[in-house]
Structure formats: C-alpha cells, structure tokens
Amino acid sequence: xxxxxxxxxxxxxxxxxxxxxxxxxxxxxxxxxxxxxxxxxxxxxxxxxxxxxxxxxxxxxxxxxxxxxxxxxxxxxxxxxxxxxxxxxxxxxxxxxxxxxxxxxxxxxxxxxxxxxxxxxx
Length: 122
What we know:
Layout: H1 2-30, H2 38-43, H3 52-60, H4 64-70, H5 74-93, H6 102-121
Helix pairs in contact: 3-4, 5-6
C-alpha cells in the first residue's frame, strides 16, 4: 500500500516537474531568448549541463570559441545520448527489458562530473 502511494506521488512530482520545465523553456523561447539553467537561476551554482545548448549552437554555427567557452562537454554528452537512444530502441524493438548497462550510467556520471568541475573552475 505504501509502495503504491509512494509510486503515485513520485509520478505526480515527475509530471509537475516536467510541466514546470517545459513552461520555463517555452517562456524564454517565446521571447526569443535561450532559457537559463533553472538550477543556476535558483542557486547561483552552474549545473554540469549549463551552457550545453549555447555550446551546441556554437558548433552548428562553427563558432568554436562559443563551443569551448560555454561547455565543451556537449559533444561527448551527445554521443553518449545517441548511443543510449540506439541501445534502448534496439531493446524496445527486440522486446527486451528497457534498461541500460551500469557502464552507460557511469559514462553519464563521468561526463557530468568532469563538466561540473569545468563549470566551477572556468
């Protein structure tokens, strides 16, 4: 019974968080601005993903200064994200459990940890 209540509360909190996240981004995008990091805006501490969007735009526009300055870990993060998507799509197609390996999770943690250190010392 408690597990069911916990699960429902968790789902509701996740949905509310997702709605807030989408609303936050749509508010800034509708004004023609890049949305700031919610975590940074609330705490003043940059999150590991802060600047990844601006860095990605720098890559697309071949502005490598913007890429390096904002967050140079966007490329490894995107590569890992693509790999994860391919793995999960393959598992879904083959009707296998929809999970990734621990090493994939460690890859994300490593990229995010190094990115956070970069954001704090730059």
